[in-house]
Description:
Elements lengths: L1 H14 L1 E7 L6 E8 H25 L12 H36 L27 H14 L24 E4 L9 E7 L3 E3 L4 E9 L3 E8 L3 E8 L1 E2 L6 E2 L4 E4 L11 E10 L2 E3 L8
Antiparallel strand pairs: 1-2, 3-4, 4-12, 5-11, 6-7, 6-10, 7-8, 8-12, 9-11, 12-13
Amino acid sequence: MHKKNKSRIFWKKMRSKYKLSFFNENTLEEVWTFRLSRLGAFMFFTALVVIIFMAATYLIVGTPLKNFLPGYLKRDARAKIMDNALRIDSLSKELEIKDHYLQNLNRILTGNIQHDSIEQIKDSLLTFPKDSFLNRSETTAEFIEKYEKDEKYRLNVFHDNIPTDGFIFYPPTKGQVVNNFNPKRGHYGIDIRTSRNAAVSSVLDGTIIVANYTLEQGYIIAVQHGNNFISIYKYTGGLLKKVGDKVTGGEKIAVVDNYNDRISTENTSIEFQLWYMGQPLDPADYIVF
């Protein structure tokens, strides 16, 4: 009974209304009156806190304002950053590999091949005492002496028989040969005069390994073929392929322009070179122009 009286007294106090009035100091006139019970005040401030919390949550979650919070990063943005970092790393490695490949190819074409600076390591297993082999016979000594004399002044280190069986060489373009192959003068190909905007075709199936532009020789494109053949096309007016493209024999890879003949607007010429294992070949021996 005592507990019920306390409960009634508590709820009576909570429901009791209080009056808050504001008076004009000069006239003592009542300006504004506010009546509120304890329970009403508690519910009012509780509702106000809930509304403020919901509004703040909406601003953070539903608007771009969350992007300005320190340490916040979207899952998609984080995934894109990781993917871009991996792509940049892969591209840098690919560029480094291609750069080394082009440098080695340039050294092979120009003949500027660097020798290995690492000294040969002597293997103790390959050293034998002087008396471990039989003495040479007279026949063996005569054969070695004759072979050394015959090979002493042989300068050609390349194989004489170039494997061209099964290969059909297509002409690089239609035209007239105006400058023949002459390696003694540093001309390692032939010049073909043709009409402007004529097509330049690959002589064999292969892969594009060089496709760039130089001020001296215009657009240059080179194709790696089977059996270590390389064909090079210089002074072209525009390229139709890029490095890494696969081409077939007779497929168009570039177009001709009057790059090295500014006077004539109808005819121009290109230079075509054919190489085998770093050795320049006369294209006229393999292609009918």
